Amino acid sequence: xxxxxxxxxxxxxxxxxxxxxxxxxxxxxxxxxxxxxxxxxxxxxxxxxxxxxxxxxxxxxxxxxxxxxxxxxxxxxxxxxxxxxxxxxxxxxxxxxxxxxxxxxxxxxxxxxxxxxxxxxxxxxxxxxxxxxxxxxxxxxxxxxxxxxxxxxxxxxxxxxxxxxxxxxxxxxxxx
Length: 176
Prior knowledge:
This protein is mainly beta. It has helices spanning 61-68, 152-155; strands at 2-5, 11-18, 22-28, 31-36, 46-52, 56-57, 80-92, 95-104, 107-121, 132-142, 161-175. A hairpin with a 2-residue loop joins strand 8 and strand 9 (107-121). 19% of the residues are buried.
C-alpha cells in the first residue's frame, strides 16, 4: 500500500563547505514522493521521489538565483531532480540503506541513502485517522558528478565550494 510524503511535515536540506571555513545551508521547498512499504517483507519495499529544483532556497536571494542558473541546477532546462530506489536494505536495527538512482540535470548516478526509521507517529488530534511514519535519511554526493560547477578559475581545488554536498531528508509519510 503506498505512503505519500507529507510536505508540511517533511524537509529536504543540504549543506556544502564554502571557502573552507563555513557551510552554506539550503532547502528544497517543493517535493513529492511515494513509499511502497512492504511491512511483511521490507526488502521488497521501494521509493520514488521528485524535487522541484527551482524551490531551492539558501536565504540569500542572489546566491539562490546563481544556484538556479546555467552551470549549476539550470532549472529552466532541468526543472526536476528525481530518485528511484533499486534496493532496500540491509538492516541494522532501525537503520538501513536505500540504494537507487539519483538524476540531476538528466545525469543519473547510483547513490545510497543511510536511513533511520523513526517509527510510526501518533495520530494528529483533530485530523482524520491516518497512519503516519517518520524517516530520516542522509546522503553525500559529489556535485561535479552532476555537472554542478563554478567558474573554473575560482574553483582552485575546492577553495570556493567543496565538491561534496551533504543532504538530509526528514520525511513524514502518510498511508494512502
